[in-house]
Design brief:
Helix content: 25-40%
Structural class: alpha/beta
Number of strands: 11
Distance between the termini: 52 Å
Length: 396
């Protein structure tokens, strides 16, 4: 195998800890899983503004009907209701006090570009200031928690996302294809032999060890899935795998879920978006169940790069918007609330006469959540989100 091919093959294997050794049990009991919905999901049909006649007038074909009607919205309080696709999953969590929502949340990035806004959020750096494009905020969080050994973080993705770029190296593996590998046992032995006695020997051996460790951890569960033991869809299967790893090994996790760009045929209580919510909800419920007793130490944050336009378009869909809704789940979450600064939804309160405004800036929101979750000092928090005053929403 040529050196160029070797390096390419190794890039597909999980990365190492900052110290070049296997990652052990996390030093803190707290767990954070960040779920990124790529595509800009329609938060207006997730969190339905019950008192807004303007919402219903703006969505003649895709609005979620009020509670009490057949397949109507699920009332959360006097002002807000939840999409009915989450009746069996997130709604019970909310009523049990283990789920909350942060309305009017998002970034001040105004490009409405999927890629630019995703990058802005993942970097977690001030808009308009000079940026370090090799420093994602979860990498900085991992460094601040365990600067000597790197961290105990894992990216459940095929490629390392920007959010985990930085000085601390983070293992990554797409768990849907965890049983597949571009390097078989014989090639692994050859690569290890090539680097024996060289400076990279320990790093190469550790990379293969991380890969094998993840496979061994998940072999039994994967076989059960092949016998149709799991029936809640692809994300739910992956969510259970993530939980199995996080409850024993990792305290920071990241996963992204695509398919949220609903320009055409979005649907209302039923249809395409409802199917996305159903799968996501079942996955998150499966994750919480698989975490077992560690659920009480776990916080899950669900976010997207932006929301969608309040008005439906001519294709019965919605276009790129601005303000969104974050989800916060966990056994220690002070849930059963819709948190953050809010305004009544009307034409007068729209941002640029089209979108939900951002009233709860995402770095301040996440800064408050991370400070509470991990007990960050002011210096640690400033390293993760420079110059940010954390927003305390009383969720943790």
């Amino acid at each position: 195998m040529y050196r160029r091919d070797l390096l390419k093959a190794l890039a597909a294997a999980p990365l190492l800890s900052h110290a070049g050794s296997l990652l052990a049990a996390p030093a803190t009991h707290a767990r954070l899983l960040l779920v990124f919905l790529r595509g800009g999901y329609d938060a207006n049909n997730l969190l339905v503004p019950l008192g807004s006649d303007f919402y219903y007038a703006s969505r003649p074909n895709i609005a979620i009907v009020k509670p009490g009607a057949d397949n109507g919205a699920l009332a959360l309080n006097a002002d807000w209701a939840l999409h009915p696709a989450l009746r069996e999953t997130i709604y019970p969590m909310f009523n049990a006090g283990e789920a909350a929502f942060i309305a009017f949340a998002g970034t001040t990035d105004l490009t409405r570009s999927h890629f630019e806004t995703q990058d802005s959020i993942e970097l977690g750096q001030e808009i308009g200031a000079r940026r370090d494009v090799r420093s994602g905020f979860l990498n900085r969080l991992a460094q601040s928690l365990n600067s000597d050994q790197g961290h105990y973080a894992f990216s459940f993705t095929e490629q390392l996302p920007l959010i985990f770029e930085g000085r601390a190296q983070v293992p990554n593996m797409g768990l849907r294809s965890v049983g597949k590998s571009g390097i078989d046992a014989r090639q692994s032995e050859l690569i290890a032999a090539m680097y024996k006695g060289m400076p990279l020997q320990q790093a190469v051996s550790a990379a293969f060890a991380v890969r094998d460790d993840v496979r061994k951890e998940l072999t039994g569960e994967m076989l059960a899935a092949n016998r149709n033991a799991i029936s809640t869809g692809g994300f739910a299967l992956e969510a259970q795998r993530i939980a199995r790893l996080m409850k024993d090994k990792y305290n920071i996790g990241f996963v992204d879920v695509g398919g949220w760009d609903t320009h055409v045929g979005q649907g209302g209580a039923n249809g395409y978006l409802a199917g996305r919510f159903d799968e996501l909800g079942r996955g998150l419920a499966a994750f919480s169940q698989e975490m077992g007793s560690e659920w009480r130490n776990t916080v899950v944050v669900v976010l997207s790069e932006f929301g969608r336009t309040l008005r439906e378009n001519g294709n019965r869909g919605t276009d790129h918007g601005h303000g969104s809704v974050f989800w916060v789940l966990g056994g220690a979450v002070k849930g059963k609330q819709v948190a953050g600064e809010q305004v009544a939804i009307s034409q007068a309160t729209l941002f640029q006469n089209r979108d939900m405004p951002v009233l709860n800036e995402y770095r301040a929101v996440l800064g408050g959540l991370l400070r509470r979750t991990f007990g960050l000092t002011p210096a640690q928090l400033d390293y993760v989100f420079a110059g940010v005053k954390p927003l305390e929403l009383g969720l943790l």
